[in-house]
Amino acid sequence: MRVVLSTYGSRGDVQPLAGLAVKLRELGVPVRVCAPPDEEFARRLAVDGVELVPVGPAVQAAVRAAVKGAPPAPGDFPRRVATMVGQFHEAVAATAGPGDTVVATGLFPAVAGAQAAAETVGARFRYVALQPTMLPSPHHPPFEYPGHPYLPGVTDNRELWQDNIRTMNALFREPVNARRASVGLPTVDNVRDHVLTDSPWLATDQLLGPWPEFAGSTVVQTGAWLLPDHRPLPAGLAAFLDAGEAPVYVGFGSMPMGGAPDAAREAVTAARALGRRVVLARGWAELALADGGDDGFAVGEVNQQALFPRIAAAVHHGGAGTTTAAALAGAPQVVVPQMVDQPYWAGRVAELGIGVAHEGAVPTVDSLTDALRAALAPEVAARATALAREVRTDGAEVAAKLLLA
Questions:
Q1: What is the pLDDT of residues 339-358, one digit of tens each?
Q2: Residues whose CB is less than 8 angstroms from the CB of residue 232 and which lie 6 or more positions away in sequence, other chains included
Q3: Which secondary-structure segment (H or E) carries 124?
Q4: DSSP structure class, residue 308
Q5: Which residues of 315-338 are buried (b: 16+ CB within 10 A; e: fewer)?
Q6: Are residues 10 and 155 in the same domain?
């Protein structure tokens, strides 16, 4: 049996699949990853000997183009959905075969294409969510798509999820069904529930991103899929860390920060106002230190597993991967959420007492100074240290063994 892992998204979507791929390879299972052709994804997978099957355009280039250019016309959306469904159907169908297993996450059209491919070639299919809010539950509302607001006056999550079926059908059913019909597959009436399946997996830590059970729930929570990182820190960064007290990390990952272009500068100013040195991660927003002071160090893509145990706190966007990495390191967090699942992770950090959820996506020096001061309090650091011992690291192994069962 071969396992084909499929996703379209940023590093936060690709890296968990890489973690699962490594565990599958350790168990002797052939595995390939269908993902965007970004160089950083291919390079990271190659470190662990995992083959990347490139699908679609590079994500980083698409994100930068979207920030700098005019937004796509609403009428172009169905065409873009159809293109992605077709790209992933073709790539996964060419990679998987009868008796194989396809595991998919990421943008909905990519998952729908991978699922159709599994049906086409006679492979098993597993949908995996990388955050609880992607799955229907009475404990949280669905994602509110632009142009498809919640029903006026409705606050019950069950009703909102029921209406979400209508929203997903309006956005995705026609292009998904057109592809399915073109390859001889039956069309579906409820595209959301068909793609999510009746037994989806959830790859989050049971403490950080729990799944509250309810009547009728069939979600299988495996734990977070972590990719061990053995790369050393750059020599310059290591020397900077050795030269003084633990710095504050500031980084927003794959977020272009178009709506908050000054967030990094203000976070650095806030850290300095509290007498803290700073490590600034450039990320996809290509952040840079405004001066050449010896209390700051800018770094590109870096091993967070080696860096985070040596920081005083992390100021970040609230991606699942960064949140989990900081929690595992026992580092207090200030989360400045930008989109989708990031408000959820910000809320969890605050609820667990391991950091602060910034109110809103656009910070100021004052708001970040207050948030960072609170996160650096001794009781928060103590709670973060204690919780780090409770976060599990075997999620990818659990998932790999379930796939082989």
A1: 999 999 999 999 999 999 99
A2: 238, 303, 306
A3: strand 124-129
A4: G
A5: bbbbbbbbbbbbbbbbbbbbbbbb
A6: yes
Strand 124-129 and strand 201-202: pairing?
Answer: parallel
Domain containing residue 252: 235-388
SS3 160: helix
The burial class, CB within 10 Å (0-12 / 13-18 / 19+), for 18 is buried
Q: Does a structural domain hold residue 218? A: no
Q: How far apart are CA 212 and CA 198, in angstroms?
A: 17
Please count the helices (runs of H) and the strands (runs of E) in the chain: 16, 13
CB neighbours of residue 395 within 10 Å: 24
**Contact present, 185 and 304 (Cβ < 8 Å):** no
Q: How many domains, the chain? A: 2
Calculate the alpha carbon distances from 29 to 13, 100, 224, 273, 403 in Å.
Answer: 21, 11, 20, 52, 10
d(CA 287, CA 281): 7
- pTM listed for this prediction: 0.95
Q: Is residue 78 part of a domain?
A: yes
Please report the DSSP string for 19-64 in residue order. Answer: HHHHHHHHTT--EEEEE---HHHHHHHHHTTPEEEE-SS-HHHHHH
Provide the CATH number for the domain around residue 315: 3.40.50.2000
Distance CA 3, CA 87 (A): 19
149, amino acid identity:
P
Written as one letter, the residue type at 322 is T
Compute the residue count for the chain: 405
pLDDT for the residue 67: 64
pLDDT, one tens digit per residue, over 1-51 is 999 999 999 999 999 999 999 999 999 999 999 999 999 899 989 988 898
